[in-house]
Fold this sequence. Notes:
single chain, two-stranded parallel sheet
Amino acid sequence: METFNFDINKKCLTGKSDLAASIAQEVRKKFSKFGLILDLFHLLIQYEQIKIALKKRAMYMTHLNISNRVLRDKSLPAYGDQHPRFGFIGEENDVEQVRKFFSTLFELE
């Protein structure tokens, strides 16, 4: 299951790490292979710190996405949950966010 934003453009039901982890915990009682897709962009669009969110979801993670975001400028075509390429004008994820994402993953080992 992938979590999405709850107040930008897709406005999906499952967003924050606590909710995603509790849903995964319940579903795993019947389906042991059920897991969460963790996306760098989605963690940030859900207003969560990378380190805290990854640690809360770690035991349920089955897939990772490394993606970019544009949230500050609504006039850009990549605004919202569009996953623009890295290097896109107005991007907000860069080397620092990707580094934090990976360094936290290595800490979870």
